[in-house]
Amino acid sequence: MRRLVLAFSLLGFGGCGDDTQSCTTAGCFDQLTIDLAQSFSPDDAYDVTVELADETITCSGQGDAFQCDGVGNADYSPAAVNIQGGQVRSVVLMRAPKTFRLVIESGGSPIVDETVDTISYSSVYPNGPECGPACHSGQVQL
């Protein structure tokens, strides 16, 4: 009987300990990928403007060389233009806006002028849902 009591006592203590979760410090960024159905010539220069509620991000370039400006941090640009096969395929924002307007121009003439009011995002928790941060990732097709 004494052994049985000792065994149950040990089982009771087996799960004891600190119930707090150890969180890592992995970070992440919000991101929206705007996929473009229309193809663009790699020979032409383009100006890409994304208007958000509180800022405007512009990217300019030709072929596989685009430079984006806007409000970013010291390590990351606020946006990037994704080139595949010498053609613009998508614009990636390091933001999760509720709405945006995308304008792509070449030689001062608009090629794309689209406003998107509905975007679905999924949440990503690099350190687990109990630990921060939570980042949001979305994708739209134009």
Estimate the global geometry from the Cα principal axes.
elongated
Contiguous helical run count? 1
Strand content: 35-45%
* N-to-C SSE string, H for helix and E for strand: HEEEEEEEEEE
Q: How many DSSP E strands?
A: 10
Order of strands side by side in the largest beta sheet? 5-6-1-10-9
Determine the N-to-C terminus distance: 74 Å
Structure characterization notes:
The structure is a single chain. The chain has 142 residues and is mainly β. It has one helix at residues 2-14, and strands at residues 31-35, 45-51, 56-62, 65-69, 79-84, 87-93, 100-106, 109-116, 121-124, 135-141. Strands 5-6-1-10-9 form a 5-stranded mixed beta sheet, with no helix packed on it. A 5-stranded antiparallel beta sheet has the order 4-3-2-7-8, with no helix packed on it. A hairpin with a 4-residue loop joins strand 2 (45-51) and strand 3 (56-62).
